[in-house]
Amino acid sequence: MSRRLRGRGAGALPTLGLLLLLLLLGSPATPGITCPTPTSVEHADIRVKNYSINSRERYVCNSGFKRKAGTSSLTQCVFNETAKVAHWTTPNLKCISAYQYNPRAVTAAVSIPVTVLFVACLLFLLVRCRLRSRQAHQTPGVEMESMESVPMTTGADARGEDTEIHLHGLGGSGDAEATRGRSEGPALLQPEGT
Fold first, then answer.
1. What is the Cα–Cα distance from 24 to 27, expressed in whole angstroms?
2. Would you say 55 and 77 are in contact if contact means Cβ atoms under 8 Å apart?
3. Counting beta carbons within 10 angstroms of the beta carbon of residue 91, is it exposed (0 to 12), middle (13 to 18) or buried (19 or more)?
4. Which helix (H) or strand (E) is 125 found in, with range?
5. Which residues pair with 57 in a beta bridge?
6. Distance in angstroms between the alpha carbons of the first and the last residue of the chain
7. What is the per-residue pLDDT across 47-95, written as a single tens digit (0 to 9) for each?
8. Three-state SS for 104?
9. Are 129 and 136 a contacting pair, CB within 8 Å?
10. Which of 1, 8, 59, 154 is the most buried (most CB within 10 A)?
11. Which residues fall within 8 angstroms of residue 52, CB to CB, at 6 or more apart?
């Protein structure tokens, strides 16, 4: 019985070695099989140099973005034995904005114009209220009647002198003679010396 075991044990070693060699080199069903285009990652690009099984490629975040810490940009072309399909491993890459959000900067950027606008409106209202209060406290002005709207009549005052107002004289007798005989309308004056 020991002879049989020895014979079988010695013959099994080359078979086992051959099986290990095949596993290390890959499945004989994979020659010529390549991976399709890798999946897209938001805000990242990939330039594939080799689509063959076991090739590795890296995604690169677009300009203005950077790789989030703890995520990987690596993907690898693998062959799924069950589905007999080659595919790229799913990367967990996250590309985030390279510009950090600063809430204080945003607050300052918004609050400064709002403050300027508020101060401008406040000044406008103060000036307007001041003007209105001045108008309310002013005493109404005494309006004088226009000389043109007062009818002018000829006649004599208590002393018997002519009271009509003349443009070129002070109401003397020469002016009165020029306007006698006219009862309506303004007096027309004639130049002196005619």
1. 9
2. yes
3. buried
4. helix 103-137
5. 75
6. 176
7. 999 999 999 999 999 999 999 999 999 999 999 999 999 999 999 999 9
8. helix
9. no
10. 59
11. 34, 35, 77
**pTM across the whole model:** 0.39
The H or E element spanning position 17 is: helix 2-25
Q: Which two tokens stand for residue 1?
A: 């019985």
Angle, CA 44 vertex, CA 40 and CA 47 arms, to 5°: 75
Does the pLDDT of residue 30 top 70, yes or no?
no
- Alpha carbon distances (Å) from 166 to 14, 85, 163, 173: 149, 122, 9, 11
Cα Rg, the chain, nearest whole Å: 56
Q: Which two tokens stand for residue 60?
A: 């690169």
Query: Which of 31, 80, 24, 34 has its CA nearest to residue 57?
Result: 34
Q: What span, in angstroms and rounded, lies between the C-alpha atoms of 130 and 132?
A: 5
Residue 119 to residue 28: CA distance in whole angstroms? 80
Count of C-beta atoms within a 10 Å radius of residue 57: 19
Query: Which tokens go with 136?
Result: 């309310």
